[in-house]
Amino acid sequence: MVKKVIMKSYLGLILLFMYLPIVVLIAFSFNKSKSRGNWTGFTFKWYEELFRNSQIKDALYNTIIIALLSSVIAVVIGTLAAIGIHSMKKVKKTAVMNLTYLPVLNPDIVTGVSLMLMFVFIGTFVKMQMGFLTMLLAHVTFNIPYVILSVLPKLKQMNTNLYEAALDLGASSSYALRKVIIPEIMPGIVSGFLMAITLSIDDFVISYFTTGSGVSNLSITIYSMARTGVKPTINALSTLMFGGVLLLLFIINIRSDREEKKRKSIKTGGMEV
Amino acid sequence: MKKKWLSYPYLVWMAIFIIIPSLLILFYGFTVKDEQGFRFSLQNFYRFCDPIFFSVLFKSLWLALLSTFVCLIVGYPVALILASKEYSKKTTMSMLFIIPMWMNFLLRTYAWLTLLEKHGIINSILSFFHLPTINILYTNGAVVLGMVYNFLPFMILPIYSVLMKVDNKLVEAAQDLGGNWVTVFRKVILPLSLPGVMSGLTMVFMPAVTTFVISKLLGGAQYTLIGNLIERQFLTVYDWNFGAAISIIMMIFILISIAIMSRFDEDKGGGAALW
């Protein structure tokens, strides 16, 4: 009993530590005063201003477009790469996998700085400005390894005979790829995609070094605001985004709960018969 | 399956966006730029051999180690509780430790300013109860707090996932054989959880050494860690050669620490036979 209380209060304490800043952020999105720190009354005006502020709208737009585009590209390249890597011989496979781990293990700042050097280097040959495109390329680069790492385990679990059976039954190899391999590894592809989107939305360091000419995502906007003081509009935006994520999570939870119950009721129903 | 060619687009991509940039870092680090262009030199590394830069490097390593240690001390019990039979069925509880990461980390770190300020929320509460106030903002303390706050989930999650896989029968067997909970923990649970601890240590230490955002937000504009030094060379001073050299030095330290940790891991595994 005492043990349970101690466990509960310890978890509560740590959760308080983790959520205190979030609660503060959400609370101050409803604060009348512009400055952080003193509470002067309840208001919705920051939410209204959010829809008028073009700087934040642009940043949000860039964040979402880059997250979606980079994840889709990363999923296509990464999934194909995983299938290719899976069929490689051991030595070559190890070499390629070490290369894949490199951007995962590299500190963000080194990845960002090295990509920046490369974009500048390319810029001396081709007329290319740092901006949306360079940021997108950088995001694809750090997303691909995560797609590969989540697809490869599914390929390992897959029964190779399935693919060969499809070929024996007269499927062309590309048809078998589409109809047999891809559906089998779909869970891995989806989780890789979700991971890529999350990483892309949350990234600051790599975007910071690879952007230019006034193109910024939410993180960069927040960082540049932090010097002069973050406006409560950003608080309002992140409150909305946080609420959105929670809602999504809630819906997924309820749905999987319901499916579980359905499965259980089918099982027990079957037993009664 | 003969589908090797499917990975070629990826290999080309990696060659352009990983290998060439890494080579460029090396190139810049080992050269200096003058009127005739680039020439090979170790001057950037000589320049780093200055007590000022050494103290920055030492401070970065020390603060990162300190926050990694705090994360371990605070995070291990959390993972232990979450994996215990009281909580292991409740996935919502473990979700609660992941959800904060979905809010922008810059904003969450920024919120600590509001909390830690001289007349901020925490001090208001403390003074309301007539307790002594704390003034850690713009000190090492605030930076360590920011690191622990941001990277704690990276310590909890790997330990938690390893502990969830520990066969409960082993724990029960140890208890049946008369081990009290300290012995069971020391002899069974802790050794089995070491792989998770190792990856937790790496996952906290690496971003903590290289951060330049947390130190800038919570340590103030003049606060310098190795990450700030690199950022400044590239974006303010435009001394890319020196910046690249510092990046190489930092990478060396990170590789050394990873090597030490994996060595330690192996020692634990293979060491039993030696003893």
TrEMBL record, chain A:
InterPro entries registered for this protein in UniProt: Bact_Polyamine_Transport, MetI-like, MetI-like_sf
Localization of this protein: Cell membrane
Domain of life: Bacteria
Coiled coil: none
Predominant cellular place of this UniProt entry's protein: membrane
Pfam families attached to this UniProt entry: BPD_transp_1
Biological processes annotated in GO: transmembrane transport
Annotated ABC transmembrane type-1 domain residues: 60-252
UniProt keyword annotations, A-Z: Cell membrane, Membrane, Transmembrane, Transmembrane helix, Transport
Listed transmembrane segments: 12-30, 59-83, 104-126, 132-152, 234-254
GO cellular component: plasma membrane
Membrane topology annotation: Multi-pass membrane protein
Family as reported in the entry's similarity comment: Belongs to the binding-protein-dependent transport system permease family. CysTW subfamily.
PANTHER family: PUTRESCINE TRANSPORT SYSTEM PERMEASE PROTEIN POTI
Protein name: Spermidine/putrescine ABC transporter permease
Species this protein is from: Ruminiclostridium papyrosolvens C7
Automatic annotation (TrEMBL), chain B:
Topological relation to the membrane, as annotated: Multi-pass membrane protein
CDD domains: TM_PBP2
Name under which the protein is recorded: ABC transporter permease
Residues annotated as transmembrane: 12-30, 61-83, 95-116, 136-160, 196-218, 238-260
Top-rank taxon: Bacteria
Residues in ABC transmembrane type-1 domain copies: 57-261
Family to which this protein belongs: Belongs to the binding-protein-dependent transport system permease family. CysTW subfamily.
One CC-aspect GO term: plasma membrane
Alphabetic keyword roster: Cell membrane, Membrane, Transmembrane, Transmembrane helix, Transport
GO BP, sorted A to Z: transmembrane transport
